[in-house]
Structure formats: structure tokens, C-alpha cells
């Protein structure tokens, strides 16, 4: 049997995660004793807060290790709703919250609940690559809107308005953004909301997984705070991975209208089952006691170092990120130049050359839906590591002729 040919058409349409793949290639070189400057890793090298660790240990000791309801422990759903209500002056109940195994997992559930064949989901790019593939897995079409550097990589009301069709089911907004680090201001979100208010049947998916990683912290604004009309059709997707440095605990959530949450719970009852109980217990203690990320300042310092070091590489132009743990420089000055006799055509080729000759792992802008750029991650690098290693990228780039 030709096994590959017999796989589903669904999986044949899907590209594997570029971030996972780049990371795997970098780790392979490292295993062979080669020093690789890894700027492709989306992980966070910060310790899990003690309060979460202690709650998990207690859960194990108390044998709180059985299934929970598919939507998550009621206590955790309430802790999440309460935290949003405290932080943004909202009125969510636990019935508005679904807990899953990370933000990636709950977004997958949400796409399963929303997407029909022929639906379009508006995806402003650059963006987190998994949105495209999750939408495609459920037979819908990602309607890509390229938001260039001239718009600070953000969707504008004009672009949104131009791209809405009768097939539009939802629009995804991610703030702070992976990979650009851009943050939507209240005014910018209000402009987008004005357009959406004319289209009652379009959902808003608001991915705020980096909500606490913003400089200043107050620059983050949640779209649901704009009006009841907007809140009633927004589904927030968030989690503890980035804000609290707890990527491996795998806790994420959806917050939205009860009908969506109940449908998502039904979906999850046949897929995930329930999120890991020990992790749920850790998240309850954490979210009931810690509203602000303990790492905001560390991220700001890493971002500042990254910006300072990148400024030394004249061939890579960029705008300063305001949040998250990425920077998205342009390679347009290098395209058409030669490296070791090879003419540079695009970001994918840049990444291949960078890994092969410079031992630097980076993600091509193409994977994030915007060609001509690179995604550099610094979530897993200390400021000292950034300072020590950025010369490697500088040297590599300076070898283009
Ligand atoms: C924008 C965005 N959304 C969601 C996720 C998934 O996060 P989680 O670890 O909670 O699954 C990521 C992870 O990199 C991300 O960058």
C-alpha cells in the first residue's frame, strides 16, 4: 500500500509547523556538537512561579489526578473569569470559560466549532503560522490580509472593510503580536470595531496569549472592553504559557458567549477529554493570586537588548516591537545579493543559508504569511546570551555581496 497516498486529503493540505521544524534542525546540529544561535525557539526560559509549582505538588500528593469535566474544573473556569473581570472590569461568569490544553489546543477546538466549508476566516499577516493550518484542517479558507511595515504590521479599518465578503465567518486579531511585537491601541481597535458593527454575523477571535508582555504594560487593550456588542461576539483565546513562563503545563482557555463555550465543550469531550488535572490545580492557585506577569521587566530588558544589537546590522531594517518576545526585521536590502555564489531570493532561502553557513536558526517571514522578513525570537534567550551571540548574525549578513 502507498501509505502516504492513503492519508486523508485534510492532512495532505496541511504544512507541518515551521517553528517546530526549525527548532528540530537546530537541535540536531547542537547534538552534533555545533554551536547554534537559536532564534527560532518560541519557548520562554523563565521559571514557573512557586505558587503554581506548590499547588501541583499538593495535587499529586492529594491524588487529585483524575479526569475533570471536558470544559475544565469549575474552580479554574471561575478563577479565569474573575481574573479578566478584575483586570478589565468585565462581567464574565464561569459558564463563559472553557479550559483546554494550551491556547493552541483551544484555538483548534474553536476552529472546529466555527468553520464550515466555504467559510473564510480573515487572518491579518504577519501572524502565528498555526492559524492558517488550523483553519484549513476544518475545510475553511484563511483569507490573508498582508499588513506591511507601513501599517506597523497591523490591520486597518480600510483593509478590513475591503476584505469582508458574504463568506466571512470571523476575523482573528492577535495583540501583542507574534511575530511583529505590535500592539493594537484602544483607538485602532475602535476603528476596526466600527467596521465590524456593520456586520453582525462576524465573530472576532482575540488571541491575547501575550497580554502581559507589553511595554509599557498599560499599552495592551482588550477589544472586549470596547462595547457589549463587541464583547458578545468576541472569543478570547489565552493561556498561561507566555505570561507566566509555563509553556509545558499546557493550560489555555476560551472566553466568550455561552453558546460557543458549550459547543466547544462538546467538541472537547470527544477530542481532548480534559486538560491535565495537576496543571489545572496549578493554574487555579496562580490565577487567584497573581494577576501581573512576574516577567514583564525581564522581557522588556531582553527586547531592548535585541533592538540595540539589531541596530548594529545595517542591512536588516525593522520597527521596534512593543510587546511579546519577537522582532521582525526586513531582508529586502539583501534580496538579489549573493552569499557564497547563491543569489538570495526569499526569506526561506535566507533561513536555509543562515543555518548551514552561519549556524543561526531563524523563522522565514513567509511562514508567518509575509514574505521579505525574518522572525527572531528572544523568549528563550537572556540579555547576556543575546549580547554574546548577535555578532554571529551580523557576520553572516555582512558576507552577502
Ligand atoms: C499568537 C500565539 N497564539 C497561541 C500560541 C499557543 O500558545 P500555547 O502554548 O498556550 O498553546 C502561541 C504560541 O507560540 C502564539 O504565539
Can you offer a commentary on this structure?
Its EC number is 2.6.1.-. Belongs to the class-I pyridoxal-phosphate-dependent aminotransferase family. This is Aminotransferase. Keywords: Aminotransferase, Pyridoxal phosphate, Transferase. GO terms for molecular function: pyridoxal phosphate binding; transaminase activity. With 401 residues, this protein is α/β, with parallel strands linked by helices. The protein folds into two domains: 4-47 and 294-397, Aspartate Aminotransferase, domain 1 (Alpha-Beta Complex), CATH 3.90.1150; 50-289, 3-Layer(aba) Sandwich (Aspartate Aminotransferase, domain 2). Helix content is 39%, strand content 13%. The protein contains 14 helices and 14 strands. The protein has helices at residues 9-13, 18-31, 50-61, 74-88, 103-114, 130-137, 157-163, 186-196, 228-231, 258-269, 277-289, 296-311, 347-358, 383-398; strands at residues 37-38, 97-100, 120-125, 141-146, 168-174, 203-207, 234-239, 252-255, 326-327, 338-339, 342-343, 360-361, 363-364, 374-377. It has a seven-stranded mixed sheet with strand order 2-8-7-6-5-3-4, sandwiched between helices. A three-stranded antiparallel sheet has the order 9-14-13. It has a two-stranded parallel ribbon with strand order 1-12. α3 packs across α11, α4 (74-88) runs parallel beside α11 (277-289) and α12 (296-311) runs parallel beside α14 (383-398). The longest helix is centred in the C-terminal third of the chain and has 16 residues, at 296-311. The protein starts with 8 loop residues before the first helix and ends with a helix. The mean pLDDT is 96. Bound molecules: pyridoxal-5'-phosphate (PLP). Pyridoxal-5'-phosphate binds at residues 42, 102-104, 128, 174, 178, 207, 209, 239, 241, 247, 252.
Amino acid at each position: 500500500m502507498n501509505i502516504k497516498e492513503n492519508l486523508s486529503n485534510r492532512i495532505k493540505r496541511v504544512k507541518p509547523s515551521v517553528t517546530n521544524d526549525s527548532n528540530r534542525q537546530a537541535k540536531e546540529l547542537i547534538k552534533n556538537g555545533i554551536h547554534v544561535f537559536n532564534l527560532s525557539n518560541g519557548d520562554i526560559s523563565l521559571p514557573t512561579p512557586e505558587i503554581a509549582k506548590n499547588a501541583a505538588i499538593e495535587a499529586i500528593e492529594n491524588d487529585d489526578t483524575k479526569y475533570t469535566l471536558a470544559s475544565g474544573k469549575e474552580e479554574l473556569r471561575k478563577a479565569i473569569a474573575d481574573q479578566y473581570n478584575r483586570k478589565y472590569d468585565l462581567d464574565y461568569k464561569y459558564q463563559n470559560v472553557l479550559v483546554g490544553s494550551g491556547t493552541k489546543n483551544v484555538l483548534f477546538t474553536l476552529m472546529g466549532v466555527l468553520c464550515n466549508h466555504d467559510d473564510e476566516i480573515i487572518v491579518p499577516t504577519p501572524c502565528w503560522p498555526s492559524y492558517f493550518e488550523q483553519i484549513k484542517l476544518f475545510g475553511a479558507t484563511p483569507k490573508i490580509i498582508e499588513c506591511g511595515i507601513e501599517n506597523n504590521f497591523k490591520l486597518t479599518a480600510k483593509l478590513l472593510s475591503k476584505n469582508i465578503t458574504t463568506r466571512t465567518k470571523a476575523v482573528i486579531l492577535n495583540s501583542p503580536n507574534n511575530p511583529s511585537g505590535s500592539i493594537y491601541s484602544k483607538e485602532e481597535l475602535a476603528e476596526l470595531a466600527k467596521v465590524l458593527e456593520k456586520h453582525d454575523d462576524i465573530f472576532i477571535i482575540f488571541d491575547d496569549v501575550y497580554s502581559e508582555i507589553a511595554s509599557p504594560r498599560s499599552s495592551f487593550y482588550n477589544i472586549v472592553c470596547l462595547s457589549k456588542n463587541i464583547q458578545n461576539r468576541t472569543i478570547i483565546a489565552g493561556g498561561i504559557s507566555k505570561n507566566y513562563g509555563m509553556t509545558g503545563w499546557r493550560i489555555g482557555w476560551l472566553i466568550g458567549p455561552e453558546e460557543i463555550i458549550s459547543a466547544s465543550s462538546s467538541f472537547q469531550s470527544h477530542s481532548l477529554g480534559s486538560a491535565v488535572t495537576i496543571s489545572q490545580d496549578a493554574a487555579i492557585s496562580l490565577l487567584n493570586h497573581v494577576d501581573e506577569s512576574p516577567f514583564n521587566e525581564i522581557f522588556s530588558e531582553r527586547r531592548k537588548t535585541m533592538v540595540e544589537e539589531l541596530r548594529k546590522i545595517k542591512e536588516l531594517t525593522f520597527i521596534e516591537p512593543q510587546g511579546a518576545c519577537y522582532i521582525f526585521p526586513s531582508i529586502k536590502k539583501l534580496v538579489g545579493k549573493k552569499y557564497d555564489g547563491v543569489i538570495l531570493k526569499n526569506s526561506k532561502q535566507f533561513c536555509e543559508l543562515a543555518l548551514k553557513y552561519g549556524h543561526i536558526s531563524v523563522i522565514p517571514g513567509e511562514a508567518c504569511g509575509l514574505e521579505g522578513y525574518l522572525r527572531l525570537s528572544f523568549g528563550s534567550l537572556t540579555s547576556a546570551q543575546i549580547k554574546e551571540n548577535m555578532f554571529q548574525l551580523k557576520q553572516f549578513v555582512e558576507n552577502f555581496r
